[in-house]
Amino acid sequence: MKYIDSKKLSETQFKRYTGISCSTFYLMVEQLKKHVSTQGRPPRLSVEDQVLLCLSNWREYRTLFHVATSYGVSEPTASRVVRHVEDCLIKSNLFNLQKNLPENEGIDWNVVIVDATEIPIQRPKKTEEKL
């Protein structure tokens, strides 16, 4: 869904679609506009569409081929857009994941459990055929 279509959604629908509120989306767009280059060929996608492309990649975890097809760009272009948006948002220091883990909930965050049990594979028996 492109930005023009997403403007028709209500706040609740937009959050369901992208996973973020409209105010956070516009804050992301504002941060990305600070990094828009004025030199060279203009990008095929608007800044809003670039952020939506990146959000749809994160939210739906579709392949870049499918995301690129939805936005009418090539797969390498979609990859570059996602990488560029991620880099710009990281540099802004406004969109970090929570670093403080919840405490006093009976969870020991220092323990890692790895399930390495072996399960036998059921294969059909080989039959010997004589030629």
Describe what this molecule looks like in 3D.
This protein is mostly helical and 131 residues long. The chain has a domain at 3-33 and 47-92. Helices cover 49% and strands 0% of the residues. It has six helices and no strands. The protein has helices at residues 3-6, 11-18, 22-33, 47-60, 64-71, 75-92. Helix 4 (47-60) runs antiparallel to helix 5 (64-71), helix 4 (47-60) crosses helix 6 and helix 5 crosses helix 6 (75-92). The longest helix has 18 residues, at 75-92.
Shape: extended
Largest sheet: none
Helix and strand element order:
HHHHHH
Q: Tally of extended strands?
A: 0
Average pLDDT, to the nearest integer? 84
Determine the structural class based on helices, strands and strand pairing: mainly alpha
- How far is the first residue's CA from the last residue's CA? 60 Å
Classify the beta-strand content into a percent band: under 5%
* Total DSSP helices: 6
List unreliable stretches of 5+ residues.
none
Rounded to an integer in angstroms, the radius of gyration calculated over CA atoms is 22 Å
- Share in helix: 40-55%
What is the gist of this entry?
The protein contains 6 helices and no strands.
Overview features:
49% helix, 6 helices, 131 residues, mainly alpha, 0% strand
